Amino acid sequence: MVAKEATEEEISPTTTKKTKAKKKTKKTKASVKASVKGASKKKKKTTASAKKTTKKAKTKKKTTKETTKKATKKSNKKAEPDDTTVVASSTTVKTKDKQSSAPDSSAPEDTDSPEAVNKVQEARNKMAKEASSHSFQNDNQNNRARNSNYNPRNSYSYNNNRKSNYNNQRNNNNNNGSLSTKKLPALQVSASREFNQQLIGCESAKELLLTLQNQKGALTSPAGGGRLNSVNFSTAIHRIARHLNNFFQQHNNNNQNNQQQQQRRQQNHNPHNDAKHNRAVILSDPRFALFLCSLAEALGEVPYMYSYKQFYQDKDGNTKRQKVPCTLQFGARDMSNIAWAVAKMKIAPPQSASPLLSQHNYKTLLLNTAKQLRDKVVQVAKTKTTSSSSHEVNAEVWIPTLSLLCGHVMDTIGITVLQSYQQHSGPHVNNPFQERANLLWALATAQRANPEVFEGVIHPMVADMERQLSSSSEKTSNSQQQYELRPQEWSNSIWAFATAQCFGEGQVRLLIFMATVLETVPAFAGMFKPQEFANTAWSVATLLSKKGIQAVDESEQAAALVILRHVARAVTDRASQFKTQELSNTAWAFATLGFGMTADSTVASSWNSLNDYVLLKSDQPQQDEALLRDATTAILKDALPRIHKFRSQELNNIAWALARMGRKDELAESVLEAIGWQLAEERRRVTSQDIGTTLWSFASLEYKNDKLYRAIASRLAVDRARFFKPQELSNTVWALATAEIAPQYPDTFDSVLIPPKRRFQGPLRNIDDPITRCFGVAAEQLMRRPFEFKSQELKDVLYSFSKIGIRHPDLFKSTAEHLVGSDDTQQKSRNSNNHRRGSNNRVRGFDDFSPQGLGNMAWAYARQAQLVEDVNKRNDISATVATKTGKMAVYATSFFDVGEGLVHRLFGEIAEANLRVHDNLERLKPQDISNTAWAMALLGMKHRQFLDAAYQQLIERAEQFMQGRKNAMTIFKGQEICNLLWAFAILNFPARDIGSTIGPYMIRATGCQTNDSSDSFDIERIARMFKRMELGNIAWSCAVFGDFEPELMRFLYSGLIGASSGTGGSSSMEDLNQCFGDGGLQSEAVMSLIYLQLAMELERKNNGLCFPGDFPDGWTRQSLAHRSNGFGELEFALQLSTSNLQKDVSKAFHRIGFDHVLEHVIRLDELLENNGEPLAAVPLDVLSIDIADVQARIAVEVDGPTHFVTDIEMTADQGYPKVHKGRLDYSFKMSRDRNPVNGPTALKERLLGLLGWKTINIPFWEWYDLNGDEKLEEEYCRRLLEQAKQ
């Protein structure tokens, strides 16, 4: 029907009733005559539906007179909505065609006679009254019981009388679910119900669309052309969604024992493709698009027809009538069903792709989109008609608009419901709780959740239930309460809030309400099904974890605890009733909220941030801990025998929950093993998330099974790596590195130290070792899409490579350029002055890195360079690089890998980020400070501001600890103290008076000082905090500092050799070895102690301490050179070698007449104590001098690059790699301003000075500047000798 503009028609006020009656009779007569004529033409086109309708109507009207039966047979044929004239209701004329099985013995009446017209009019009036009083009321109520989708409020209302029809229509328009209509047949009410039953009876979506197509005008006319009421629209789209969903579920069977599925899988047949294809066919059907247009137009209140029913008098007293638009009004159930269906079909775009509609223009946008969709469908149809090709309809043209329209339909429903609540502030008795909960569920599922709608729905919903509970408690007993309190509605509501992540007053009120009802209505908890309990727990955990602990107030935490306690009791009592997903979600919820856990638990204090979670503050922690233990035990016991029924994601959720809880008992290990082998099963479908999360959980729980780790890692699909999330990749390699699952080919990616012929060449999928393959995939994806990796994920990948011992220079250089820019980027940015961080074509920076992330990044880069010695042990690289061991090899390898300028800039940015972003290191934990300082020292890089701040933090935190403030920021582990002091010493940082602070701190932290004497220390307590190698490093650092605080010295000597007084050792070597479990002192620790004793003797500050008589014989063991923890051990045992530079300098001194020897050695037995006795009667080399005039005590030290550190706060010329004699070498460039001497060089020079030697230092760059000119060399040597003799 074509909608026309509203018009008005004047009626003369002098028209008599008689005239009106005549006009009415003539009109009726003409109408009946036209009906008979039209029926005669269409007698052979009578449909089965019309026959059924006539038969049913005659059955109900057995008491009607025989003449009325004959008159009504033909007019039961439905009037087409496209007709401009609507036949009077219930009036039929007998024709030769039989429309029902009722007997018909009367002859046809003369429809042209006045008597026939009067009879027809009488029959019409009587049938209208019966339809209004009986069919619409009683039969409508019976139909509601048969069809749950049918709502009597949505039915058509009819009345034959013009004025009463208008008044009823006007009143009905104010009711929810009414439909204003033009004068339509009363029996069409029953026909609408029958059509609804036809829709329900359709066995497929295609059949349903065909049924809609056959309902003429339902798809092509605006708002369905009056052929569909709100129930029909709701039922149609609801059934389409059901059909599509059922088809998909039929092909979603995960039974792995089904032989047919296995055969089809072997034939590369994916049953999911059938379901996807069926869904695509339906959603691309033009009939479906047109149906959605009609639905949207009906929701947008587009008139499907106009009625001349509205009478009024103008200012002249004339009575006028105007066309009144007839629109559909949807009930609450209809709108919730429509929203449910659209959400189920998963075609509406998320609000991130299509913004939500606003209240002021939502109808306009909805109808505009519907019009666009109609136009596109029609245009495609026209194109297909005129085109000679036989291609199928190209639905790609309208699918985006179809998707957009679905989103607008969802928004319109939400806004319509919101406005109805805003207009009505009292109890909403006509809007059941289930329909409100379903609406929230649908909006959240479709990702079209409007926070205003959620708030507007939940507040009245909670208020109505609170009102019912209050009223019911006053009138009835607890056993006979009459309220509609059903768990599913409230479980779905809170699930919707969690899924949509709608936070606000409504969410808080809902959470508190559910907790209150669980506590105050004992029967409520018993009504929960396992799925409802699991969904509620999941929702609470999701809401609170996404909000963050800072935004969760005490009332929310208390409510969450109440809910989780009920869930824990339920799963403990009836775990066998929970499905696998419900068990998994419940365990996940407990772990995410830290229910029953404490902050000081071992695992809780070292969580890796795999998710957002909180730690609920319990008012009864012991009871909650017991509830968690019992509930988790029930879950594990029930899960173990049916572990094969769990989906892969459910398995990794349980593994993650166990890791979060820190559960390591026998039952947990059995479940972990079963989970692992299930995921390793080749027939099981697993994702990269399943692999990453499960391996992470295993490693976090310190569960080690090398074979199982490898089996799970082998399931990682390399060919789909581009689709893996960064977190999944980082979790995988982090777990493998933490569990120390060694790769079979650690040198595969070393493009610097290993020649190409000795490395693997080819795609990653061809690597037969799953561990190496996993690391290769992670590196490849990080280099391809670094901006997709979060800061934690990025640092975890690099940390894992260095932790497991795999060198990957390309990865580390690419990441450095991503973070601080390449040399070319830096030059361009300086030229253009538009350098900004975070842009895709610029650098990322470190502002988003955590303190731990910065420390791990520094450690990873330093460790990569240190791995050169491990590579040399596995492969003789002497033919590849000029230097393969020692500091020179570490420095050179770092520059080979990344580049000198880039690595200096990288560490400078790390130091500055710690200072700028993290408040001068105040937010850094002790490990973060020590890791960064250690990395800088290992690579010989000095950042004075960072070292100043680190020194200040060490002093302040030690003082706070001594004052009783013990927390994670003030407690330093032994390794952290050792590495920090060692870094200060290596970089020659003046850590003055550090012994007076760190000494008492170490004694207090170990608790080793006994009560009977201040000079006595408990060795076992020292061994709990320190290794003897760490004590040796601290001793050497004190020698560099020249800080010999007496209490600290006694502590160090007690731990190293058991000495506490001048009489020598008070503990036997065997006792010390047993306490520390190290088998004796390493050679590095021996040398450190010797340097310390020598420095104290020479400076006369030995505090009465001395070596045992058998030292060092019997106290040492062969150096383990154990570097698995990545923190290098000092190597002060002399390794004498004469470089070419030394030889050149020696020749020059010989030419000027300076007699000397090369590599003069000072031995331990030559060094005397203050009393004239040797330090130890062992000929151990202690000090060496490059060029020495022994009699004149003049020492010439030729200092190469490893004698200096680089001030990275200053810029200078950079060195460069070169090839020398076929081997890779590095040419260093240094200067006195930027490169001061390091701590070992400074200590050696000081000791030589105390021994009476005059030292001449020759930096390598000064000698190289002479360019081999012998005259310049001789002049340079004479000047240095003259300065030394003055």
What do these coordinates show?
By secondary structure, the protein is mainly α. The chain is built from 50 helices and 15 strands. The protein has a four-stranded mixed sheet, with helices on both faces. It has a three-stranded antiparallel sheet with strand order 1-3-2. Helix 32 (809-820) packs across helix 37 (900-916). It is elongated, with a radius of gyration of 44 Å. The chain starts with 7 loop residues before the first strand and ends with a helix. InterPro entries: FAST_kinase, RAP. Residues 121-132 have a biased composition (Basic and acidic residues). Residues 17-30, 39-63 have a biased composition (Basic residues). Residues 84-93, 137-176, 250-270 have a biased composition (Low complexity). This is RAP domain-containing protein.
Main sheet attributes: strand count, strand direction, barrel closure: 4 strands, mixed
Uncertain segments are 1-121, 123-187, 251-260, 264-269, 477-482, 604-610, 833-840, 1061-1065, 1119-1133
Helix share bin: 40-55%
Secondary structure: number of strands: 15
Number of helices: 50
What is the mean predicted local confidence, pLDDT? Answer: 80
User: Which band does the percent of strand residues land in?
Assistant: 5-15%
**Structural class by sheet pairing and helices:** mainly alpha
Structural Rg:
44 Å
The neighbouring-strand order within the major sheet is 9-10-11-15
Gross geometry = elongated
Q: Termini distance?
A: 117 Å
